[in-house]
Every structure is written in C-alpha cells, then in structure tokens.
Amino acid sequence: MTFRFARLVGTLACAFGLTGLSGLATAQTAEMSVGHVLATASHYHAAAAKFSEVVNQKSKGAIKATVFPGGQLGGEVKMLQSARTGTLDVVVTGEAPLEGFAKEFAVFSFPYLFSSVDQINGVLQGPIGRGMLDLLPKYNLVGLGFISALERNIFTNGKVVNTVADMKGLKIRVIQGPGYVKAYQALGAQPTPMAYTELYTALQNGAVDAAENSPDVFLQDRFIEVSKTYANLKIMYMPAVIVMSKAKYDALSPEMQKVVQEATAEAIAFATAQYKKDYADAFAAMKKTGVKIVEPDLKPFMEVGRSVHGDLLGEFPMAKPWYEKIVAATK
C-alpha cells in the first residue's frame, strides 16, 4: 500500500534505521514528488527524471519518486514555498526565485559576470557553488546540487538587435530579478513584467517586442513559431538547481539521504550533458526554420551591463563576498 510521503517519513526513518538497505524491499512505500516548470524535453526534466529513476532503484522500493513537469505543482515561487513548508519534496528550479528570500543568490543575476556556460558550470560544481548551496538550510531548504546553467539571449518578434542602440525602447519580458531589470534598463530597453505562461501570446500579438531565454527553451516552448530573430547577447547565465525540503530531507535515514545524494550526482551529470546537446540542436533548428541568428559585438554590451554591478552590490551587500569570490575564480 502506498501512503503520502509526509505521513510516512517518520515511520520509514525508523524502519531504515532498524533494517538498513537490505530490508527496504519489505518496507511500505513512500511517495516523493519532484516538480519543475519546463517541458519534458528540457534538461530540468532530464534532471528530475534521472533523480527519480535512481531514487526509486536505489531505495529498493522504499521511496517512489514521481516527476510533475510543466508547472503542474505551480510556478517556481509557489513550489519553493511549498518545499520550505514541507508540503513538497523536491524542486528543480532556476535560481532567480531563490533571490526572493536568499538574497546572496542575487549575485547570479549580475550581467556579464560569466563568459560561458562551461565557466559558470565549473564555478557551480566547485567550492563556491557548494558554499552557496550551504546557505539554503537556514531557509528550510537543502541545496542538493546545481545542474547546467542556462545561457540567456534575446529573441524578438521582428526587430534585429545588433548594437546597444537597437535596445532603445525595446519592450522586453525579463525575469523579475534585480540584475535582469537593471541590466536591461541600462541598455535602454523597457523591462516588462509578465507571467511566463502569457509570453507566447504577447509576442504573437505584439504586446511585447522581445524576451530573453536559453536557446533550448526558445525551441522547446515553441517561441520559434512567433519569434524570427535570436541575438546571442549572453547577458546572463542563470544557474539551475535541485533543492529539497529540509524537513523531508532531515526525516530520512542516513541510508536514504545517501540515496538522494547519489541520485543528485547522476542527475547533474545526465542533465548537464543533455543541455549541451539541446543547445546545439536548438541552433540547428533555428537555421533550418529560417530564424535569423545575430552575433553582435559583445564588448559594448558588456561595458554597459557591467556598469550596474556597483549599484547591485549597494542594493545587495550580502552578495558582495560571493561576487568577489566569483570574480577571483573567473579571472
């Protein structure tokens, strides 16, 4: 018989402590929900699916992890709130919603802080990334690990963005992180708040001129149907992270915590490899369908984007130590 994870986790912890892994097959099964907001073709889903597969296998039936993609359990902010209160188990999310309560994470929305996906992934998988994850328990979350960061570029419903001047007056939907808003304001654009679920229609009817996202998401969420120019501005590299409710994690036996950690390691490797493939496939699809891919000179964009770092550090002083560590690590 299967019961909700929240009701049985205490019982399972006791059972695990008494029987160890060898006795798990006879224990009652606990359900673990894993949520994310992207499509099933995304590397978020690849991470969630691999995590769930390994948890199910290595727990030998003690835990049944199930993935809920496409925002079935709510948006990222809602899911993180649920995880913090212990009503949701695991979330695969972009880091931007974490900035609402873990202000140190605002450092990741500083424009042009990193130069490539590989560079930021190296930082995320090293001591700086581990240190950032170690901040989360005080917010009732356990940071299990980072999967590949996403490169953020601009796509438009007509206008070609090739210079900073082309940004002037561009009505663009952006993530509502402070760095995103300030960067696009400095570049002369008009950052526009909007629910992600409304973006496709807004681009289609001209309510906004542009948006920013990773090339794989541009393809997977079908923006390729309504946007015919894609400018590789590389303004942000947004980390993606697997987090777990601290209450749920702490209630697991040491054996099951190890299972979760092993599942995370496999999910990171699997999803990071998929992101690289999806990135390349997205550009191939753009070329095939006639999307104009623009490769601007990034130096003027970098100069303007980095000019807001001082303002952001003034607004988020708690991010300064992490900013300094990242700058030192990426020289």
From TrEMBL:
SUPFAM superfamilies assigned: Periplasmic binding protein-like II
Protein's GO biological process: transmembrane transport
Keywords: Receptor, Signal
CDD domains registered for this protein in UniProt: PBP2_TRAP_Siap_TeaA_like
Signal among keywords: yes
GO molecular function: carbohydrate binding
Keyword Membrane: no
Pfam families for the chain: DctP (PF03480)
GO cellular component: outer membrane-bounded periplasmic space
Signal peptide (from-to): 1-27
Protein name: Tripartite ATP-independent transporter DctP family solute receptor
